[in-house]
Amino acid sequence: MRNFLSIILIVTVVFNTFSQDLTAILEQEALDTTFLVAGTFNGTRLLNGHSVETRKEGILEFLISHRFGRVNSGIDQFFGLDDSNIRFGLEYALNDRLTLAVGRSSFEKTYDAYAKYRLLQQKSGENPFPIGLTVLGTATAKTIKDYLPGQKPSFSERLTYTGQLLFARKFNQNLSVQFAPTFIHFNTAPESIDPNDIISLGLGARVKISKRVSVNGEYYYNINPFKSQELRNSIAFGVDIETGGHIFQLILTNSVSMIEKGFLAETAGDFLKGDIHFGFNISRAFQIKKKNEPITSKY
Amino acid sequence: MRGFYFIIIYLWMLNGLTAQGKYLTKEGYVSFFSHAIVEDIKADNNQVLSIVDTQTGEIVVQLLMRSFMFEKALMQEHFNESYVESYKYPKATFSGVIKNIDGLDDLNLETEIVGTLALHGREKEISTKVAIRKKGDLLILSGDFSVEVADFDIKIPAIVENNIAKTIKVSFDLHHKPYP
């Protein structure tokens, strides 16, 4: 009996010492944490269109976007480089979800403004969520004087609106995919046979080829394009290069406009026939308001 | 009767072993500081797990890299995505031994910790001075040490060479409570 008890004693004491291993205690005490999935795309633009990303609170982002002429326009136009369209944009993140922005495009001298809101965010950890959803609403005003004398349209006749849902999932560090159903309303359609409302479905992806370089692709399919003109669906390929607070995007696309209503509804170029515009987006983010509080959420 | 005494002694010993002076915190503080030509970068982590065994002097510290908070949101994103690759290496762990733990009483103790820091898939031996204090039932460890970024295979691109220091100062302040 005594020997038996001694054995029990020694065995349990030894076992007990091992089970109280410090690392094991830490693992057991560790808090389960949920993290927002960051960096689904490098910037707020996939290529022509928006990405699901918004900037964090207090960041002012300055965007310069450029589209040259068509590369198949020959040496006389220096393969499109003589012709250039530019858009300047300023975006400010009021908080981590809501961004307000204004922009101005040289193409048709168009002003644009938009609000972008992150409705749902992809999460990993204890309470994961599979996708992110961002909603975008834009309004544009065309100001180019392309009307006949005496037929000046009213301001509201030259407005268009866009509503867009951006669904995205970062599958892993290297692959992110986005689906973007889009609704565009023209206050004035080009011709009477044309619809005022156009629906377009966008699909885009980012494939990272190194930590700071990725290859992006984007395609928008128009369900009911304008009938009076021969139009094409917008397609774009590009490379993103990220360095600190800058993002450079080099783009090949058949669209010349850099705002939704333009590149979605009014793209005329045929990518396969060489109606390709070379272009770039450059963005610089400035942290206007600093903060130092957790973005992690504890549950 | 003898068996009965034996069980009493056994239970007493078991009790003594499970409550053998362990101290734990889940809200430890670790920060790092990088001083470079262009800018200073600081990040704080208030969710550090740490456990100390005052009998053996063993210490284990563990933290999530994603829990480091930066002043600039983009820095935090780049830190996790491009530098420490938190998606691949979510944790940093230090395990080591506090020297001369026997000298610890209610007075302050200045001693040394020697151990291994594991981060970004690499391990490195670290030895650092530590100040140990007992305040009420709290066991407080604080100090700082320097690490070389290159030791942990974290690459700094040439374009931000002037923004990020090659040597990073790490500070810690861990307020442990008795465990369990």
Order of helices and strands of chain B: HEEEEHEEEEE
Q: Find the CATH superfamily of chain B.
A: Lipid/polyisoprenoid-binding, YceI-like
Helix share, percent of chain A: 10-25%
Largest interface: A-B, 44 and 46 residues
Number of structural domains of chain B = 1
User: What would you call the structural class of chain A?
Assistant: mainly beta
| Helix/strand structural class of chain B | alpha+beta
**In this structure, how is the largest beta sheet of chain B organized?**
8 strands, antiparallel, barrel
CATH class of chain B, named Mainly Beta
* Name given to the CATH architecture of chain A: Beta Barrel
Give a count of the beta strands of chain A, DSSP E runs of length 2 or more.
15
Count of distinct structural domains of chain A: 1
User: Can you identify the CATH superfamily of chain A?
Assistant: monomeric porin ompg
**Biggest pleated sheet of chain A:** 12 strands, antiparallel, barrel
> Element order, helices and strands of chain A?
HHEEEEEEEEEEEEEHEE
What is the beta-strand fraction of chain B? over 45%
Integer average pLDDT of chain A: 89
Question: Concise description?
Answer:
The complex is a heterodimer of chains A (299) and B (180). With 299 residues, chain A is mostly beta strands.
Description:
The complex is a heterodimer of chains A (299) and B (180). Chain A is mainly beta and 299 residues long. Chain A has helices spanning 2-19, 22-29, 260-265; strands at 33-36, 59-70, 84-93, 98-105, 110-120, 123-125, 132-142, 159-170, 175-186, 197-208, 213-222, 235-243, 246-253, 277-287, 297-298. Chain A has a single domain, classed as monomeric porin ompg (Porin), CATH 2.40.160.40. In chain A, 11% of the residues lie in helices and 45% in strands. In chain A, strand 10 (197-208) and strand 11 (213-222) form a beta hairpin. The radius of gyration of chain A is 26 Å and the shape is elongated. Residues 294-299 of chain A have low confidence and may be disordered. In chain B, strands 1-2-3-5-6-7-8-9 form an eight-stranded antiparallel barrel. The longest helix of chain B has 17 residues, at 2-18. Chain A binds chain B through residues 1-2, 5-6, 8-9, 12-13, 16-17, 20, 22-23, 25-26, 29-31, 33, 35, 38-39, 55-59, 96, 173, 211-212, 242-245, 285, 287, 290-296, and chain B through 2-3, 6-7, 10, 13-14, 17-18, 22, 24, 26, 44, 46-47, 49-51, 53, 58-60, 62, 64, 66-67, 69-74, 76-78, 80-82, 87-88, 95, 157, 159-160, 163, 179.
